[in-house]
TrEMBL record:
Pfam families assigned to the protein according to its UniProt record, in alphabetical order: DUF3388
Start and end residues of each DUF3388 domain: 70-254
Protein name per UniProt: DUF3388 domain-containing protein
Annotated InterPro entries: ACT-like_dom_sf, DUF3388, UCP021288_ACT
Domain of life, source organism: Bacteria
Length: 266
């Protein structure tokens, strides 16, 4: 079965327009998998057909319909699938096409987006930028659950500062999602931790790095190594600054050291 994404803009919004398009698809034996409005005046459909010729005929007929303007007719991309599912497109940076922007009100869309990435095979390096308490780590964990993947923290401040220097048992499985806090890893003086990070970076698996800009500082990695950069904000105008983040990390280290002694290191 062949899947295709069809998106059109309404030129003349007359009664029965959608019904006519659906009837045409039915006559060509093309199934509508999902349909939704994806933008003001635009509607998107995920279509499925047994043979390419059915979709080719549909495309030919579309060119004769004056009440709609076809904006996309292609094999579905991840953004297309999510746009139909959620009714809007993910915001993408105009200059850096691998950077995607979300606000906290869109956590459901973000989790869905990351879950689809996590379902992919092989190496994928994902960077996640955002200020404290915006939902970064929680979104990664929720996306791992949605993708039916186990998540492993290599470094984290989620509950207590954690720096791993070894893996145990099935944690070496390439099907796991490995999560790093870029600030914690950069500040770590544990060479065994850095060796573990390098080992994970070479594995054909999904890696998610919070604060990727700090992670690449004084390291052999660069932002160009990332396949996706995700930015999560409380509101669209929020600036992501690392002064506050590093101060919070330092305070976390101090308070945890006062309460519990040294952080987890294992």
């Amino acid at each position: 079965m062949k899947e295709w994404y069809f998106e059109y803009e309404i030129q003349v919004n007359r009664p029965g327009l959608l019904g006519d398009i659906a009837s045409l698809l039915g006559m060509l034996r093309v199934n509508i998998v999902t349909i939704n409005g994806v933008d003001q005046g635009r509607r998107g459909m995920l279509l499925r057909a047994e043979h390419d010729v059915q979709l080719e005929r549909f495309e030919q007929i579309l060119s004769t319909i004056e009440t709609i303007a076809v904006t996309k007719f292609r094999e579905p991309k991840l953004r297309d699938i999510l746009a139909v599912r959620h009714g809007r497109y993910i915001q993408r940076d105009a200059d850096d096409r691998k950077t995607f922007r979300f606000v906290r009100d869109e956590l459901g869309l973000l989790v869905d987006f990351m879950a689809e990435i996590f379902k992919q095979e092989g190496h994928k390096l994902v960077g996640l930028r955002g200020m404290p308490r915006v939902g970064k780590t929680e979104s990664i964990v929720a996306a791992s659950v949605s993708a039916n993947k186990k998540w492993i923290f290599l470094s984290s401040t989620m509950i207590k500062q954690t720096v791993r220097n070894q893996l145990m048992g099935d944690e070496h499985n390439a099907n796991n999602i490995f999560i790093l806090d870029g600030i914690v890893t950069r500040r770590s003086a544990d060479e065994r931790h850095m060796q573990l990070v390098r080992e994970m970076m070479r594995m054909p698996t999904i890696k998610v790095v919070e604060h990727p800009d700090k992670f690449v500082e004084q390291s052999e990695y660069s932002i160009d190594d990332f396949d996706y950069i995700i930015e999560l904000r409380h509101h669209p105008e929020e600036k992501i600054t690392y002064e506050v983040l590093e101060k919070n990390t330092f305070m976390d280290e101090k308070s945890q050291g006062d309460m519990f002694g040294d952080g987890f290191n294992f």
